Amino acid sequence: MAVATTPMNLTGHWVGYLAIAIFSIAYVLAMLEEVTELRKSKPMVLAASLIWAFISVIYVNNGMSELSGQSFRMALEGFAELFLFIMVSMAYLNAMEDRGIFENLRIWLLSKSFSYRQLFWITGWMSFFLSSVCNNLTTALLMGAVVLAMGKGNKRFVGIACVNIVVATNAGGSFSPFGDITTLLVWQKGVVPFTSFYSLLIPAMVNFALPAGLMHFWVPKEQPAAAIEEPMMKRGGIIMIILFLLTIITAVCFENFLHLPPAAGMLMGLTYLKFFSYYLQMTADKFTDQQNRLYADQMEMPPDLLGKQDKHDFDVFEKVAHLEWDTLLFFYGVMMSVAGLSFLGYLGFASNFLYDQIDPTVANILVGIFSAFIDNGTIMYAVLTMHPDISQGQWLLVTLTAGVGGSLLAIGSAAGVGLMGQAKGLYSFSTHLKWMPLILFGYFGSIGVHFLLNQRFF
């Protein structure tokens, strides 16, 4: 008997309707995480499991279990590559945070006598460039801490500065292959070469600078009091930054020259951190003794009275253990659920509507607007699963729009949601919504600049 190789169209079947209902309910629960205090990964992982379980029931009953199993494994392989890439990136960020690198940056900014308007632009541009190598949530929380510390007593400044940070982090992540989940997905899928992403640099700058330039006139002119704190960075911090950059270079070389998944290069880069962790552990006692002697000389007391530092002052596996597992499992639930809906035939239907009946440019602009309501990683994965036959210029366009479209609303990106939690009462959904027309102006401005500068890709 011949084995079926084409999935059944179940868009009109009860399983299809049930899958849509399960996914919708789970996604609403994930969006209401701040209200319900239910971690977003829980409903999404359950939804993915139920969707594939119901699909498998139908396929087993029709003697096509191999086809459903194969499709599930293909989707799982895509998630595994993404998971390993993000795992290494998060491990490095956690390690650098442990060494006090981000705290040092915050203290340096606080020690300068910047005016509110200067701080508005400094935190904006720093958010833009930092988010191209760090995830947008980490960048937003770092810059948000600076803004909250400097803007004490000035609610107006904190609100507008937080809006600016959200726009900047999302724009900064949109032109770098590892700056955001959307660009990472596109790069790993291979639809856009590594170097081509940087053609979005100027459009991304326009996306940030246009609304920021207009908001500038509403930023208070006053100068806050500078805070005096002593910067402290633990040993190995600078080397970890260098190792992280080498890890990114390794991932790029693996993809460009060896045609291996970027995740393979990132895992090799993780070993750099592991060996350096070993070095820090083995030299911890010697370093502590030196510090104790120096401190004892200053305090005029015997070094033995100061005790010893824990030998394991840095453990890379501890940094891996403290990853954002809720976020990683949330993406598992989203990607596997979307893969299930695609297998049922829904994404083929959506692709036919968006990219066959509508002009691709209009479709990609709409995708960006949808990302203000639905996580941009989810939107991009859905588009990649549809795999429409569009030019590289259109792929770059949808990468840009999905990346920056989340800035239109405070709930449209992890950066916005994170800052709402960090700056409660000062930055809210309504605060962000007030500036949405200016952000929308920047959104369409960046699209126009992309068409103007990147005609060669169309």
Relevant terms:
mainly alpha, 71% helix, 458 residues
Compile the SSE list and pairings.
Elements (H helix, E strand, L loop, with lengths): L13 H18 L1 H4 L4 H21 L3 H34 L2 H11 L4 H15 L5 H15 L4 H19 L7 H9 L11 H15 L21 H20 L5 H21 L1 H16 L16 H6 L3 H20 L1 H11 L3 H11 L5 H11 L5 H14 L8 H9 L6 H5 L2 H18 L5
Helix pairs in contact: 1-3, 1-15, 3-4, 3-15, 4-11, 4-12, 4-15, 5-7, 6-7, 6-8, 7-8, 7-20, 8-10, 8-19, 9-18, 10-22, 11-12, 15-18, 16-18, 17-19, 18-19, 19-22
What features would you describe in this structure?
The model is unreliable at 305-312 (pLDDT under 50). The protein has helices spanning 14-31, 33-36, 41-61, 65-98, 101-111, 116-130, 136-150, 155-173, 181-189, 201-215, 237-256, 262-282, 284-299, 316-321, 325-344, 346-356, 360-370, 376-386, 392-405, 414-422, 429-433, 436-453. 71% of the residues lie in helices and 0% in strands. By secondary structure, it is an all-alpha fold. The relative contact order is 0.14. It is globular and about 70 Å long.
